[in-house]
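A quick aside before the break. I want you to see a complete sequence-to-structure record at least once, exactly as it would be stored in a machine-readable document. Don't worry about memorizing anything.
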Amino acid sequence: MKVLTLDNALFSRKCVELRELVAADGFDYDAVVAIASGGVYVARAFMDGNPRHNECFEVDCRRTGTDVKKRRLSKVVGALPRWTADLLRIAESRIYEVKRRFSSSHLKHVELPGILVDYLCEKPRKLLIIDDAVDSGVTLASVVKAIAAAGVDSQVRTAVITVTTGSPLINADYALYRDATLVRFPWSLDS
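That is the input. The structure line, written in tokens, reads:
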């Protein structure tokens, strides 16, 4: 495993690379669905400078414990030397991988915003769901399932910066990294 640190400029370039990856595949989406909170940052940078696709909806589906981790660890982790933070990040990823192997991956209930449901019901849509990373895949799979349940013949594809595990519940259609690269984003606790 390796850790890649993205400052704001490199993060913006990676989002453009992701947009180019989708464009090269020829997927002409009608709208973006951004998964809060990391996916919202990626979606904004992904769509920046691309006025043709300006429809973006936000969906909240965070991993349990994310808010607790932010409150308790933000000051401590942010003060650690980079190499120590990298080791902790790798250890956390390995712990999640082991936990996922020994527990059932239950999809989460996702409440789609009413405006998105209305949008999906107007006519068949092509949606691009964007998140920052796929770890277990539960979040991405939960959002895909919720959209499938609400949409009328919607075609859905998914895009992320990185897939951190070898066998997530759902794999992204588009990803810049699929080699267990852990990304330290500009908004990460240890950035």
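Two observations worth writing down. Residues 26 and 66 are 35 Å apart (CA to CA). Strands lie at 2-5, 31-36, 56-60, 126-130, 133-134, 155-163, 174-177, 181-184. We'll return to this after the break.
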